[in-house]
Every structure is written in structure tokens, then in C-alpha cells.
Design brief:
- The protein is an all-alpha fold and about 180 residues long.
- It has one domain (about 20-185).
- The protein is about 80% helix and about 0% strand.
- It is built from 4 helices and 2 strands; from the N terminus they run E-E-H-H-H-H.
- The protein has helices at about 20-60, 65-90, 100-140, 145-185; strands at about 5, 10-15.
- Helix 2 (about 65-90) packs antiparallel against helix 3 (about 100-140).
- The protein is elongated, with a radius of gyration of 23 Å.
Length: about 180
């Protein structure tokens, strides 16, 4: 690429400002880390907390509900899965170099992980919702309470679809930037 110099500040015109681009990449990576850390911790804490709460309440009743036991076990296993995934993600983050392309590759890796994490969270609603509805039905609750709970889970599923598409869009933006940089490089 031919460089045309601006005599006022000795910067090339129509060229990529690499420092500004690298700062933008670092900003996107930092945002991705923040969102991922928050998502992971929330999923771990909420699943473990809800699983333990449901298990504790169900154990204290003389006639425990099998669907509540299954739901509690599912939530505790989900929390464990998220914890193991978090540990693996943190360990793998050390493999990238500290160049602009290395930081971009790390941001893409983190975005890919976030897309997978949101997909797991999205699909996790299905077994928890089904087990919760079965627990309500088995305990003899009214049809209205089952319908309301179904609506709540449907709304939660809709929100997770929106969240997932946001993460996919962020990942595509980073991949597009990587393709452009490699094409020019």
C-alpha cells in the first residue's frame, strides 16, 4: 500500500492506525472477559445454589418428589460442568502471544467459548423446565400454576435466544476483522 504523508503530524493518510486498532481489539477482549467471567460465575452460583436449595427442601419433606431430586441433581451437575469449563478456559488463555493478531485470536477464542457457554445455558433450560413442570404436576398443583411456570420458562428461553444471537454477532465481527487483517498483512 502506498503511503501518503501528512506534513502536519507525520502520519500516513489512508493507512491503518495500528495502535488505535490494537487498543480497540484489547477493549473488545476485555469486554469479552468481563462478560464471560460474569456469565460463568452466575451460572455456577445459580445452578449450585438452586440445586442445593431444592435438594435441602425436598430432603426435609417426608414424601420427597422424585422430579425435584432429579432437578437438583441436574443443576448440581450443571454447576460442576460450568466450573470445569471455567478452569479449562482460564488455563488455555495462556497460549496466545501478545501481538495484535495474538490478542485478536484470543478475543475470537473467548467469543467462541462465550457462544458455546450461552448455547449450553440455553439448552439447560429445557431439562430444568421439564423437571420443574413435572414436579408441579406430581405434587398436585393447579393447572394455572403449571401454565404460569411454563410461561416463565418460555420467556427465559426467549431471552437466552436473544443473548446467544448477540454473542454470535460479536464473534462474527471479530472474525471479519481477522480476515481483513490477514488479507492486508
Amino acid at each position: 500500500m502506498k503511503k501518503i504523508w501528512d506534513s502536519q503530524n507525520n502520519e500516513p493518510l489512508y493507512a491503518i492506525n495500528e495502535k488505535a486498532l490494537h487498543n480497540r481489539i484489547l477493549s473488545k477482549k476485555k469486554t469479552g472477559y468481563h462478560i464471560t467471567n460474569t456469565s460463568e460465575l452466575l451460572l455456577i452460583i445459580v445452578n449450585a445454589g438452586a440445586g442445593l436449595l431444592v435438594l435441602g427442601i425436598n430432603i426435609s419433606k417426608p414424601d420427597g418428589n422424585i422430579f425435584l431430586y432429579l432437578g437438583a441433581a441436574w443443576m448440581l451437575l450443571s454447576a460442576l460442568f460450568m466450573l470445569v469449563s471455567r478452569i479449562r478456559r482460564i488455563q488455555s488463555s495462556q497460549q496466545f502471544d501478545r501481538s495484535m493478531l495474538g490478542d485478536l485470536s484470543q478475543a475470537i477464542s473467548l467469543a467462541t467459548y462465550q457462544v458455546r457457554l450461552s448455547q449450553v445455558g440455553r439448552w439447560n433450560i429445557l431439562p430444568i423446565g421439564v423437571l420443574s413442570l413435572l414436579a408441579l404436576w406430581d405434587s398436585g398443583k393447579s393447572a394455572w400454576s403449571i401454565v404460569i411456570m411454563g410461561i416463565i420458562f418460555a420467556f427465559a428461553a426467549r431471552v437466552t435466544f436473544w443473548e446467544h444471537s448477540t454473542y454470535k454477532k460479536r464473534k462474527r465481527e471479530l472474525e471479519t476483522l481477522q480476515k481483513r487483517l490477514k488479507a492486508e498483512g
